[in-house]
Amino acid sequence: MSAEPVIRIVLAKLGLDGHDRGIKVVARILRDAGMEVIYLGLRQTTASIIAAAEEEDADAIGLSMHNAGHLALAPAMLAALDEADLDIPLIIGGIVPDQDVPILEAAGVAAILGPGAPAEEVVAAVRNAVSA
Amino acid sequence: MSVRELSSADLVERAIDGDRRAIGRTLTLVERGGEIADQITELTHPAAKGSHVVGITGAPGAGKSTLTGQLIRHLPTLGLRPAVLAVDPSSPLTGGAILGDRVRMDDVAGDGGFIRSVATRGHAGGLALSVPGSVRAFDACGFDPVLIETVGVGQVEVDVAGAADTTVVVVNPGWGDAVQANKAGLLEVADVFVINKADRDGANDTRRDLELMLDLSHVSGHEDETGYRPPIIMTTATAGDGVQALWDAVTAHRTHLEATGQLEHRRAARFRYEVRSRLGTRFEASIIAATADLEPDGRSPAAVAVELAGHLLA
Asked: Does B78 share its domain with B215?
């Protein structure tokens, strides 16, 4: 009916990381950009995120990381997606030191959003990742 | 090959074979509406076997998601293969939505059940327009029962009763008194009542108010002609208490519907309701087009509407 299909994105915290303020802000930003945000909340596993992405037919997955686990967790998520043969862009938000950004990008993370990223940047990152 | 590249026919075939990604994609196309959604309806209609459709409704925060999460965790242990449509509201301003029901169902994804979050996309009444189509797709894919969790509703948004075989209305202790219970709307559509958060103060008062309301239906001659009286189930969804009792009540209602021939009546009504809703969607587009460039011209809105109705129906 509408010309542009609505973007559906799964947002989650992977592993043991209770800092969910940032991801809630991102959820709101994406909602206000007209997207449908499937919010999974805390303590998700790569398997639960993949199951949700399949059932929800998600266009992208966004994970928030604030526990310095990104160099382990992001590649683990990418490997799980690869193993499941699920071709969906992965976006990481949260605390990622500058020197780690190229490492994650080289590993295949579609976009990395730091704290204080303006709303337009967040929205554009998701749109670009989905249309890439 | 990604499921996104399949034709509708191949996609639905794979979905019916149980491919989760194909099911997910099928539901997306149903939600988008339009011609492809109609094709999916054509393809899934013959495969639908008549799953038990259970609506779960109630005020925001009543515990619908938690209760639904407990059901979808419990039902596979009874040998059932449940699916959930969890409906949340779209923003009327931006069209976006935060679909958060999975937060309370998270450890069940992929364990035999299937959860789909749905945004209302501008539709009032507590459901999305696509819900009947999604229910049919789940049915065709072998899910039974299909649970529909509505958005949090107030006193009038009772679309779910038109979409379900069995409607469960969830209330909480302290939600209101006997006067609230006798207002029209939500409570009238209940086939099963749940008092969730029954470990809180006032649960027995709420039970008494509901029982009294049901007694009054009898006094005024509005009781169910088959003698069915909605049971009241006490649950504490966060602890899983009462979930089996709730399911027993839901299946008892289904048995009652079958025994009295009401199931057939309800499904015929559902069929009419869906056709009506689809007609409404089609005509709404014509109405919007016919009124898009309308300017006040001194005539009354009533006169203009009568004239336009003549054109539209011609």
From this structure: yes
Chain A residue numbers touching B97 (CB-CB < 8 A): 31, 36-37
Torsion, Cα A95 A98 A103 A105, to 10 degrees, reads 80
The Cα–Cα gap between B118 and B101 comes to 10
ipTM beyond cut 0.90? yes
* DSSP H or E segment with residue B308: helix B301-313
Shared-domain flag, residues B16 and B94:
no
Model confidence, pTM: 0.92
Query: Scanning every residue of chain A, which has its alpha carbon at the shortest distance from the alpha carbon of B33?
Result: A1
Whole domain around residue B20: which residue ranges?
A: 1-47
Task: Please list the residues that pair with B246 across neighbouring strands.
Answer: none
Peptide bond into B145 cis (omega under 30): yes
Please report the number of interchain residue pairs, chain A to chain B, with beta-carbon separation below 8 angstroms.
87
Domain count, chain B: 3
CATH of the domain at B246: 3.40.50.300
Q: Which residues of B touch A44 (CB under 8 A)?
A: 106
Mutate to test the interface with A, among B1, B65, B103, B117 (most CBs of A within 10 A): B117
Instruction: Tell me which chain B residue has its CA closest to the CA of residue A55.
Output: B24
Same-domain pairing of B175 and B242: yes
Please give the helix or strand (H or E) that residue B98 lies within, else none. strand B97-99
Residues B91, B232 within the same domain: yes
Per-residue pLDDT of chain B (314 residues; tens, 9 = 90+): 789 999 999 999 999 999 999 999 999 999 999 899 999 999 999 999 999 999 999 888 899 999 999 999 999 999 999 999 999 989 888 889 999 889 888 665 556 789 999 998 877 777 888 999 999 999 999 999 999 999 887 655 567 888 899 999 999 998 766 566 556 577 788 999 999 999 999 999 999 988 988 888 777 666 677 889 999 999 999 999 999 999 999 999 999 999 999 999 999 999 998 898 888 888 888 898 999 999 999 999 999 999 999 988 87
**Is residue B279 included in any domain, yes or no?**
yes
Query: Residue A30: enclosing H or E segment and its boundaries?
Result: helix A21-32
- Which of A 13-32 lie inside 8 A of B, CB atoms? 27-28, 30-32
